[in-house]
Amino acid sequence: MIESSKPTMLDRTEQAHCTVCCCTLANKILMVLFMVLLIFATLFGNLVTLAVVLGTKHFHTPQGYLKASLAVADLAVGIFVVPLSVYAEVYLMVTDSAPEWTSYNSQSVSFHPCNIIGPIFAGCTLVSITTIFFLTIERSIAVLRPLHKDSVITRKRTTILIVLSWVGSFFLAVCPIVFSSEIALEYNSCSRMCNYALGTIGKFPSQAWNILLLFPAFDFTLLGGTVVINIISLSSIRQHSRRRKHLAESESQSTTKPTFSDIKAAKTIGTLTVAFTVSFTPIAVFVVGNVLGNKWCNFSFFAFWILATNSCWNVIIYSVRDQKFRLRAQKLLMPFHRKNTTKT
Fold first, then answer.
1. CA 142 to CA 153: how far, in whole Å?
2. What integer best gives the mean pLDDT of the chain?
3. Where is the G-protein coupled receptors family 1 profile domain (predicted)?
4. Paired residues of 187 in beta bridges
5. CA–CA gap between residue 236 and residue 142 (Å, rounded)
6. What is the DSSP string of 175-211?
7. End-to-end distance of the chain based on CA atoms, in angstroms?
8. Distances in whole angstroms, Cα of residue 203 to Cα of each of 8, 183, 212, 217, 259
9. Using CA of residue 152, residue 155, residue 157, residue 159, what is the dihedral sign?
10. 310-324: per-residue pLDDT in tens?
């Protein structure tokens, strides 16, 4: 989301052709193929998730609502963010010159595609982090306080939290360009997507610096809290499993312990947290390196696109960890499988 390097696509034509993803025609084709496959994987996986969650009464729960919100955020990346990069790269590969708008930042023209795509990517990333945090809170209450789960976690409260997370995340996403005239958006030739950057060449002014720090501060705070809560929940699950092996469960004990489905869901959310942390860590390393003055052009490409691939991981995790989700998804896809079998 944050990129402090100044040259844009056409200003850095030589560098653009020398990055590891674009050194040769074969590399360019592989890069575009990867982006196209990412679009299809993101759309397919998250549409399946939405169909399962919205079309199955069993998933009409606070947890299901949060998973649907996460799927919508991931869908937006596949619909808006990645296709713009595909267009720019295919245009560059076919004509051997980048689209005209990539040679300017958003301050230099009246309309720039990155004015829309940049905040969408940043906002959806923040929504994903916030949603995973809410999922972790929801599961921790189910595991640590099972008797209070239904009274504390309601669909109405969850819906309000989802709306607030979207509004707050996109507010943070537009803050850099709304509250600072020194920050612009550009299509960066290193990351191959829309990034925030300084509108003028030079060191970071203090105001712009403080605004850009909102992103890592927000992300690291929520991710850190999410990891801590997951550790507490999983530790409680482990202790419960040990007690269950050694003690005969009385009727009163069975009413206060977390259910098997709650334990299973908590482990699934823990897996989601690990996956997102792994995908976000390269961005964290890149931002720190950028602050220290390192360009890391090649690493920038991998960092941003590893984060983008996180948009298609969730459905895989659900399918592996959640048997009910997997069975429902199989039922939804069965008619398409039968049609293909009939044709062959």
1. 9
2. 82
3. 45-318
4. 194
5. 11
6. HHHHH-TTEEEEEETTTTEEEEEESSSSSPPHHHHHH
7. 45
8. 17, 12, 13, 20, 55
9. positive
10. 998 888 888 788 888
For residue 186, give the H/E element and its range.
strand 183-188
Tokens of 292: 């220290």
**Token pair recorded at residue 335:** 């008619």
182 φ/ψ angles, rounded to the nearest 5 degrees: -95, -5
Q: From CA 148, how far away is CA 139, in angstroms rounded? A: 12
Measured CA to CA, the distance from residue 14 to residue 69 in angstroms comes to: 41
Model confidence pLDDT, tens digit, residues 282-295: 887 887 777 666 77
Nearest in space to 93 (alpha carbons), one of 168, 23, 181: 23
Give, to the nearest 10 degrees, the angle between helix 214-246 and helix 260-291: 150
This prediction has a pTM of: 0.84
Q: Which amino acid is at 205?
A: P
Q: Distance between CA atoms of 62 and 156, rounded to whole angstroms?
A: 8
* Distance separating alpha carbons of residues 256 and 250, to the nearest angstrom: 10
- What is the spatial distance between Cα 212 and Cα 199, in angstroms, rounded to a whole number? 13
pLDDT digits (tens, 9 = 90+) for 119-173: 999 999 999 999 999 999 988 888 888 777 888 889 999 999 999 999 999 999 9
- 182 forms beta bridges with none
Rounded Cα gap, residues 80 and 48, in angstroms: 19
Q: Taking a C-beta distance cutoff of 8 angstroms, is the pair 257, 263 a contact?
A: no
Residues pairing with 196 in the sheet: 2, 185
CA–CA separation, 129 vs 143, rounded Å? Answer: 21
169, 123 Cβ separation under 8 angstroms: yes
Output the pLDDT for position 244.
Answer: 64
CA dihedral over 138, 144, 147, 152, signed as positive or negative: negative
Which residue, chain included where needed, has tokens 């069993």? 58
Total residues found in the chain within this entry: 344
- Reading the block at residue 244, the tokens are 């269950």
Please compute the mean of the pLDDT values over residues 200-228 and round it to a whole number. Answer: 73
Residue 54 to residue 65: CA distance in whole angstroms = 8
Residue pair 1/119 in contact by the 8 Å Cβ criterion: no
Q: Six-digit token pair at 323?
A: 């048997």
Identity of the residue numbered 183: I
